[in-house]
Design brief:
Largest sheet: 10 strands, antiparallel
Distance between the termini: 25 Å
Helix content: under 10%
Structural class: mainly beta
Strand content: 35-45%
Number of strands: 52
Shape: elongated
């Protein structure tokens, strides 16, 4: 409350809390964490329905995958866990070709290349075997731009309604067809080979990210190119030398081997069907890693870690709405669609206010769990602080020591929870489950108390308020709109990990009143004892502690500590005194 007894609001970890007003302490992983996946088979070729080659595969938002195939004629198949059906192309021989303006399932087609959806749900189909690019809308197939683009191999769309087409080895050029009309050459020179100076050598699959950057799998240059909206062309992955190297390092220093297609997700992560290396690779924050395939030819590994599986040859690749990766795997050993499902991976479990990796936690305290694939919600969201914390958000849940925690903020790289009520002390297991897929257990340590001070932006200075509500305390030279404290000031601090209250409040529940901390903590500033005026539980797992600073404190940045029982808050927190 402020000095007049009013209740203000503040935002911590992307949730609104009664107290003070500012956005602070959004913790993010300090290093790039590559996702891990399990591998399964979504569909296999049969005697009557075959899975096609090339770079053609697309996924919609409903769990369906679209892929070139044969039944026995060239068709586009819609595939899901229930089976497959033909959505473009006739199953009968000698069907009308090219079929512009006809029902999509009555036309004949040549060999097929890429497929892609636009934001309106229209399907584009490239025909690499001397046929036009088709636009399928409302069940009718039309020839894009009057059938001008014959023999295209790759196709992509962006969120502005533009269409991108690659002509492969037959043209070595990529065109952009703006939604406003016309044609723009964005990479390559028609019928000219090269791997420098903006030239291409067999551009295959294409992908466009949400920022309008185009990615081109250049099979013979052994690189993936990136073309920025302004037209600048750079290397996104590959050093131009065919081979396999570079995992864990810069993507531009790695060796690729005939990359056939690319896909990009909503977070800008790039996926590469590295055909010649029998691997699927990922580029994240400029670094590269393998996500599927052990480099040996074969068809093994379903149900296990994707990096241990044998692949026959990854061709087309697409990303599903839930983070799944789909790719066509075809060669001597198989002709299938395989699915990679992200597995949640925990890298550390921290006291949410400590800023120390794998710091001890306490029953009822705020806990930050960091890793990869912890949630499908991107960039993330928090819970309404006026309500009790849920045990699951958007399919993400957490157990600590086998007991369900209470979730208040989720993102793919971090989940924040309030630890459940538990009397256990010592090592405990932590498991994150994301939409039915669980992480391997991580180990955290329960202490009887785990005090830690909320800090501005997770930095050095505590998030504090002059108790009369007149100003926020920080360091004005570092944190805008804050003031220094003065010796003798009365301040409000925000803390987690102080233990039970009187009366007790179960974890996950917002206090109906503001119960007092059962055992008041001690506080020191610059080594001097600070007078604790009182402390209450203001919010599920979040305590308000009111203190008065000693009048003898010197000016400067002084260490600030809060002590509960035999445990004290981490080093490195400073209060600025003027």
């Amino acid at each position: 409350m402020d000095c007049n007894g009013g209740v203000m609001a503040f935002r911590i970890h992307n949730i609104w809390v009664r107290g003070v007003a500012a956005s602070v302490l959004v913790l993010i992983p300090a290093t790039t964490v590559f996702a891990q996946y399990t591998i399964t088979t979504l569909a296999v070729s049969t005697a009557s329905v075959g899975i096609g080659l090339q770079n053609g595969i697309a996924a919609d938002g409903s769990g369906n995958v679209y892929v070139p195939g044969s039944a026995p004629e060239s068709v586009v198949l819609k595939v899901n866990s229930s089976g497959s059906s033909v959505v473009v192309g006739s199953t009968q021989p000698n069907a009308p070709f090219p079929g512009c303006g006809m029902a999509a399932t009555t036309i004949g087609m040549t060999d097929l290349g890429g497929v892609a959806f636009d934001t309106s749900g229209n399907l584009y189909v490239a025909q690499s075997g001397n046929g036009p690019v088709l636009l399928v809308s409302g069940g009718i197939a039309s020839c894009l731009d009057g059938g001008k683009y014959i023999g295209a191999v790759g196709i992509a769309t962006d969120n502005m309604g533009d269409v991108w087409i690659s002509l492969g080895i037959n043209g070595n050029v990529v065109y952009k067809l703006p939604a406003s009309g016309g044609q723009v050459t964005v990479a390559g020179t028609l019928n000219t080979f090269g791997c420098t100076g903006g030239l291409l050598s067999d551009p295959q699959g294409l992908a466009v990210d949400t920022g309008g950057n185009l990615f081109i799998a250049d099979q013979r240059c052994n690189v993936v190119w990136k073309v920025a909206p302004a037209g600048t062309m750079t290397v996104a992955a590959g050093n131009g030398t065919p081979g396999f190297s570079g995992d864990g390092g810069p993507a531009t220093s790695a060796s690729l081997n005939q990359p056939w297609s690319v896909a990009v997700d909503g977070k800008g992560t790039l996926y590469i069907a590295d055909w010649g290396n029998l691997r699927v690779r990922m580029v994240k924050n400029g670094l590269i890693d393998t996500v599927a395939g052990n480099g040996l030819p074969g068809y093994t590994g379903d149900g296990g870690p994707a990096k241990s599986a044998e692949l026959a040859g990854p061709w087309g690749i697409a990303v599903g709405a839930g983070g799944q990766i789909y790719f066509t795997d075809q060669g001597k050993f198989s002709a299938v669609i395989r699915q990679l499902t992200p597995v949640p991976a925990i890298t550390e479990v921290d006291n949410a206010f400590s800023n120390i990796p794998n710091s001890p936690i306490q029953s009822g305290s705020w806990v930050a769990i960091k890793g990869a694939n912890l949630s499908n919600t991107s960039p993330g969201r928090g819970w309404n602080a006026n309500e009790n914390f849920p045990t699951s958000m958007d399919g993400t849940s957490v157990t600590i020591n086998g007991k369900t925690a209470f979730v208040y903020s989720i993102s793919p790289g971090q989940v924040n929870v309030q630890a459940p009520t538990d009397s256990t002390l010592g090592p405990v297991s932590v498991v994150v489950t994301n939409n039915g897929v669980s992480s391997a257990p991580a180990t955290a340590t329960y202490q009887s108390n785990s005090p830690a001070l909320l800090q501005w932006g997770g930095g050095q200075y505590p998030y504090a308020l002059i108790t009369n509500g007149s100003a926020f305390v920080g360091n004005p030279a570092v944190i805008p709109n804050t003031v220094s404290a003065h010796a003798g000031d009365s301040l409000t601090l925000w803390v987690t990990g102080l233990g039970p209250t009187n009366p007790p409040v179960p974890a996950g529940q917002q206090p109906a009143t503001f119960p007092a901390i059962a055992t008041m903590p001690a506080v020191t500033a610059g080594g001097q004892n600070v007078t604790v005026l009182g402390g209450v539980l203001r919010y599920a797992g979040l305590y308000q502690v009111n203190v008065q600073l000693p009048v003898s404190l010197p000016a400067g940045d002084l260490p600030l500590k809060i002590i509960q029982g035999s445990f004290q808050s981490p080093d490195g927190v400073l209060i600025n005194i003027q």
